[in-house]
Amino acid sequence: VTSATRDSHPRTSRPMQSHAMGLIALALFGFCHAVQGREAVAVTPVQKVIQLMDGMLAKGKEEKHTEQVQFATYKQFCDDTTVEKQRAIVD
Fold first, then answer.
1. pLDDT value of position 24
2. Residue 5: pLDDT above 90?
3. How far, in whole angstroms, is CA 36 from its chain's centroid?
4. 27-63 exposure pattern, b = at least 16 Cβ within 10 A, e = fewer
5. Angle at 63 between CA 58 and CA 67, to 5 degrees
6. Which residue has better confidence, 32 or 87?
7. What is the per-residue pLDDT for 23?
8. C-alpha dihedral, 62 to 65 to 69 to 70, nearest 10°
């Protein structure tokens, strides 16, 4: 950074610069602390997402099977009722 670039922002004062540096340091400290905390975690975020997706897949398959059974039952009822009604009309 040249002195011309630094001088182009006359409103930036030393207290603002030190405040910004303090915020950056705090953010880095928080990041480092979070990284250290992750080492103790048994499941990574990616693994958690995969677990959730596997759960959704299993739930979807179960619900699909349940709906197929319900539909088959309803279809059989409709077919039986249609046959009964057609016989009643003929008689």
1. 73
2. no
3. 24
4. eeeeeeeeeeeeeeeeeeeeeeeeeeeeeeeeeeeee
5. 150
6. 87
7. 66
8. 60
